[in-house]
Amino acid sequence: MDFSGFLNNLTPATGFFYFLSFLTILTGLMVVLSKNPIHSVLYLIATFFCLSGHYVLLNAQFLAAVNIIVYAGAIMVLFLFVIMFLNLKQEDEESKTNLTKIAAMVTGGTLFLIFVAVFRKTQFGAFNAYSFDSQVGMVESLGEVLYKDYLLPFELASILFLVAMIGAVMLGRREAGDRHF
Amino acid sequence: MLPIVLLSILGLVVLFLGFQKSKNLLLPATLLVLAIVLVANFLHWNDMPSLYFKNMLFENKFTMAFSGIVIFSAFLIVALTRGFVDDESAQPAEYYTLMLFSLVGAVMMIGFENLIMLFVGIEILSVSMFILTGSDKKNLRSNEAALKYFLMGAFATGIMLFGMALLYGATGSFNLTAIKGYVMANNAPSAMLYVGLLMLLIGMLFKVSAAPFHFWTPDVYDGAPTIFTTYMSTIVKTAGFAAIYRLLSGSFSGIYSFWWMTLAVITVLTLLAGNITAVYQTSFKRMMAYSSISHAGYLLLSLTALTNQSQSAIVFYSLAYSIATISAFGVLMLVAKETGVHSYENAERFEAFNGLGKKNPLLAFVLTVSMLSLAGIPLTAGFWGKFFVFSSAADRGLTWMLVIAILMSTVGIYYYFKAIIAAYMREGELSAIKVSPFYRLILIATTIITLVFGLMPDFLKGLV
Fold this sequence. Notes:
The structure holds 2 protein chains of 2 kinds. Chain A starts with a helix and ends in a 9-residue tail after the last helix. In chain A, 72% of the residues lie in helices and 0% in strands. Among the domains of chain A are: 9-88, Up-down Bundle (Four Helix Bundle (Hemerythrin (Met), subunit A)), CATH 1.20.120.1200; 134-175. By secondary structure, chain A is mostly helical. The longest helix of chain A is centred in the middle third of the chain and has 26 residues, at 61-86. The relative contact order of chain A is 0.06. Chain B is mainly alpha-helical. Chain B has one domain (2-463). Chain B has 19 helices and 2 strands. Chain B has helices spanning 2-17, 26-41, 61-79, 92-111, 115-133, 140-171, 176-185, 191-207, 217-223, 226-251, 256-279, 284-305, 310-340, 356-359, 361-375, 381-396, 399-425, 437-455, 458-461; strands at residues 50-52, 57-59. Chain B has a two-stranded antiparallel sheet. In chain B, helix 11 (256-279) packs parallel to helix 17 (399-425) and helix 12 (284-305) runs parallel beside helix 16. The chains are: A mainly alpha, B mainly alpha. The interface between A and B is medium-sized, with 29 and 41 residues.
């Protein structure tokens, strides 16, 4: 099939999907390739917005909103703060040996190859458009699953956060002889 | 189910006890909590295997035995903390709470029926361990260890989570039984299942420090305060192996032919890396870190075999290994404190034990029994642990692995005997160490348990 025929056959949803995928890959590459760390972070935020678009396409509206609030909002702001604190303006030439670089290339390339092979071989299950519940990704159905089926892990996640909080307070607490900022 | 609920609630109570001026109440309170939980754990011993909370948690004799080992080890280790009274900057309430909460994670890992439970459990356990590793804030090596452990652990968690996502994509469920159903129903499972399983295994093998994912172990175990090294090398390992066993036997026994070779290679690598590197260590604590890697190898051998015997073999081995490790580190802590007064560098080396046998016959005996048990010498629990593990491997016909494992355990005898030789045959200026009666009681108890299980192993083996 030639390219113009491919374009004519696109439904709006698939067209949007391809456009989003293109943007995601482009911004993802820019995160790695840009020299300035601040630019990297900004591209990463753009990547998260694109991913949220994918979530909407997959009928996961709640996840899309949470992704923007938590990742693009909170976590990326932290990233920016840290980068500004560390003051990474000068471009430090990375002191990696060629051996490390080659090893990293081989490992990463192998993993990439495996994933390409796996997803080419995998038969994804078809879905029935008529019996599909379009509300599946909304807060209501999510809450029902969370508070009925997954009640125990949901509650125990609070223990996880409490542990992290205790640790942050314990390790961050100023000792008697510490320097005051 | 009861241990999780009790530990979560009573852990909070211990945390709030920290508001009191006097810290003397914390140690007895934590011990009481652990004793209560230990009893509660075995309340339903004779019940049928059952599922709780909408198929989230599974309980049978195997999981109860494992939870029992973990809680009992925690009890012994907490008893050896002596309330952190000799350290002014210590925060005992937080330490005890983190220990109790980490047990919640361990029990979740042992009894999980849903991969989400496994993930939350592993995270609770790991995050507590990151914090406890770095709890000695003024010690640079402790800081380094915590950061290293955290970064590596975060990566391993990421890989594990990706694996779980792929498993969900392939099977459509997080439930162990549902995954087993999928594996059984499909002659050619989708490739995503294989990749998912491998990534999940990589994450879990990292947590139990199997080679080639073991590089963090020596630095972290060496840098952490010794009491928390003891905690990591016993409880994290035990819970991790229970989790891997439940995963492999519960869901993936149907595709044994796919994963056994991977696990076999990892087992052999772990045995070689752990035992051979341990020979070159001059620090006792670092040697114990490598020895914990090698013991992970023996446990993996039993998992690779995955016969009917494997279950009771890993229960017995974990118990024998935990008890012996606790008494070895218990002696090290006393000796290192005594030697550390003269020279800080020598405190955790083999030389620290020089002359231990003359002035401190009890400590030397405890150390000897624990070393013999770790080396797998007859009349100790460690011998029977190795025996059961090896016989399960022999049942499966893994002769070549068995040969390597036996060779490596003879290498093990060499480095374990270094400590015994230092204690009895070398001259040293070690004076008589004052041991509090309670501490002495715990050390005697671990030694007696090691010897009793060495004399009559059937006592425990018949139970599970």
